[in-house]
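Inputs:
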Amino acid sequence: MTTAKRDTYTPETLLSVAVQVFNDRGYDGTSMEHLSKAAGISKSSIYHHVSGKEELLRRAVSRALDGLFAILDEEGACAGRAVDRLEHVVRRMVEVLIAELPYVTLLLRVRGNTATERWALERRRDFDHRVAELLKAAAADGDVRGDVEVRLATRLVFGMINSIVEWYRPESRGASGPEVADAVARLVFAGLRQA
Amino acid sequence: MTTAKRDTYTPETLLSVAVQVFNDRGYDGTSMEHLSKAAGISKSSIYHHVSGKEELLRRAVSRALDGLFAILDEEGACAGRAVDRLEHVVRRMVEVLIAELPYVTLLLRVRGNTATERWALERRRDFDHRVAELLKAAAADGDVRGDVEVRLATRLVFGMINSIVEWYRPESRGASGPEVADAVARLVFAGLRQA
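Outputs:
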């Protein structure tokens, strides 16, 4: 039996509960009932904060996407040679992914069954495209190797970065966000082999 | 209405149908009914070939695991400096992943709810460990950079390789297995930045 708790949520704190439930059960598999149970408040209390689960999804993936897009406006992403701007973006992507882990995890699992999911996929593609453009510019400058095709390289680098959500656990006191970011930047830009 | 087709399956051809259904619906979400429908033969015909869906899972993930473990016995993985053996293994992992795409996809999605799944996870961990040991040996030789921790590097490299199942589509006539393998080996060992 669950004891209803007094509703002390704000839309933001409710969001952090919802994201965890979405990640555990999948967005499609989550009902308002599940959210109400996890939050310990009634469904009508949830409706007091948000219009429904799709609004929670939109807020959650927006938080991830806003974090990622903000990187592109940072000075390190705007000034200097393309290859250095690209390295800044790669490093910061890892840091944002780790800082906003549950939100980025949810974003990466979005499949496109609802309008909000399709909108999120569209924004993800837009972000990927902006990063691919940086890589293309760095190749045009002759600063990155020419023997790996830009689209393929972009996919592989995103694959490495996004895979972090599969194993990174903040509570396990392993590497910090900046440490993982350093490791990714070293691997991607300089490679494993000792020169 | 489905018309039952004459059962011309062997355990191997039945397996390729089953793997596709497992990948589409998830192993947990697949019933013998789904398999019977997809194969176009009766459930009792399926039981003529295999003892049930868990045997199909075991055969499928065995095919992926056997392909991966066979790499470790190849000459390129056994002779020479550790860093070169590691590069051989990384390249061949990508080729095996692409050659056995549906089987490796299924292997990477195994979650551990049944004895067969737990056995598959155990063998995956064993394989990952063997690759990490190679990386450790290459680091001890001074052939790979010392400023990326071995466990972290192994996870990131596996993350890049395993992410290929998310986007690689053999029918789209993009890069071939060996081309993707080259790209991964270049990125992982030499990095993007032009020396």
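Remarks. Residues 60 and 193 of chain A are 39 Å apart (CA to CA). Chain A has two domains: 11-50, 62-190.
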